[in-house]
Design a protein that fits this description.
With about 260 residues, the chain is of the alpha+beta class. About 25% of the residues lie in helices and about 30% in strands. The strands form 2 sheets. Strands 6, 7, 8, 9, 10, 11, 12, 13 and 14 form a 9-stranded mixed beta sheet that branches. The chain has a 5-stranded antiparallel beta sheet with strand order 2-1-5-4-3, with helices on one face. The chain is globular and about 50 Å long. Belongs to the class-IV pyridoxal-phosphate-dependent aminotransferase family.
């Protein structure tokens, strides 16, 4: 195992932190996870600058120390020879921690056959500071673990009005009547980089995209629901358990090809 921490490459599975480190005590970190295409940070699908901008925006809003961006790029370049997926974490003092992982072995199967989703209707599962990717990801983590225990692969988070927000790992998209829909940022979701990429690309292709509020009644009218993130790209839902009421979707058609085209 390899990881990069504070300007150095380590080949072990342990990291040393002070017991008073706020990242350890409070989850006080910001992070971003990216998929590196063709082992290049400059590949347009990697969106390296967008991921760095995400980190910088959160750090500035939290009034934390900015990291050494050159060190981050150096560490990332060390790891992309082994790992196609990187997670870059920044601590309040500006230290960087970069880890790598592999793509899910069953990713192609998930994209082709879809996943079963579970609606996480409990305030316990709400994510804090929705506009930022912080180390305090406990709400989403608990929702995903509960979904897996129940036999599902992904959970969908909702707000106090039961409006759908996002999944535990990505942004939601829905299709009906010739238009793609995705929850608007104003409802309190993470502004995903993959989401932003697709919105711009679809509009360039003159394909309708609407950012809106996903109420429980409106969701039932959708012909297809998928989620996206920077790692898995596009994953469709074959079915979603809305606390006992099931929504089932036909994912065998050509609709998904519209989104897949962006990554080809």
């Amino acid at each position: 195992m390899k990881y990069w921490y504070d300007g150095q490459l380590f080949t072990e599975d342990k990291i040393s932190l002070s017991i008073d480190d706020p990242g350890l005590k409070y989850g006080a970190t910001v992070f971003t996870t990216l998929r590196v295409y063709q082992q290049s940070l400059d590949h347009p699908l990697t969106q390296w600058k967008a991921h760095c901008h995400r980190l910088q925006t959160s750090l500035q809003q939290f009034a934390w120390c900015l990291p050494n961006w050159q060190k981050i790029a150096e560490g990332a370049n060390y790891l992309i020879g082994t790992y196609p997926v990187l997670r870059i974490t920044i601590f309040p003092d500006g230290k960087e921690w970069i880890t790598g992982r592999f793509l899910p072995e069953n990713l192609v199967k998930l994209q082709q056959q879809g996943v079963k989703g579970w609606l996480a209707k409990d305030s316990l599962f709400q994510r804090s500071l929705q506009g930022h990717k912080t180390g305090n990801y406990l709400g989403a983590y608990l929702a995903l673990q509960k979904a897996k225990k129940l036999g599902f692969q992904e959970a969908i988070l909702v707000n106090s009005q039961d409006n759908w927000l996002e999944t535990t790992t990505g942004n939601l998209w829905g299709w009906k009547e010739g238009t793609w829909y995705t929850p608007g940022l104003e409802v309190g979701i993470l502004p995903g980089i993959g989401r932003w990429q697709l919105i711009n690309w679809l509009r360039q292709k003159n394909i309708n995209v609407i950012e809106n509020q996903w109420s429980p009644s409106w969701v039932k009218s959708l012909e297809l629901v998928v989620y996206t993130n920077s790692v898995v790209e596009v994953i469709p839902f074959s079915s979603i358990d809305c606390q006992g009421e099931y929504l089932n979707f036909d994912i065998s058609g050509e609709l998904l090809q519209i989104l897949y085209q962006y990554y080809q």
